[in-house]
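[step 3/7] inverse_fold.run input=structure_tokens len=72
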């Protein structure tokens, strides 16, 4: 199952799950910002990258909260 990826010991509380999610969001935002600044992408590609970033961020947020609620 997907929940076995994240052990429950990582998330002793909802606050920790939130902080962990924010760290991942910042990591991906910085990574995409670096890619966008390299001038390798057109404006259309940049819009696509923003939607991909949002999708990845929401996926991590959902995964972490599901792992937290499963552990409790």
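[step 3/7] decode complete -> sequence:
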């Amino acid at each position: 199952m997907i929940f076995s990826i994240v052990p429950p010991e990582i998330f002793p509380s909802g606050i920790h799950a939130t902080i962990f999610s924010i760290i991942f969001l910042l990591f991906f935002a910085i990574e995409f910002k670096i890619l966008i600044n390299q001038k390798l992408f057109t404006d259309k590609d940049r819009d696509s990258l923003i939607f991909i970033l949002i999708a990845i961020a929401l996926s991590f947020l959902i995964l972490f909260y599901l792992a937290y609620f499963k552990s409790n």
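[step 4/7] annotate
DSSP finds two helices and no strands in the chain.
The longest helix spans residues 43-71.
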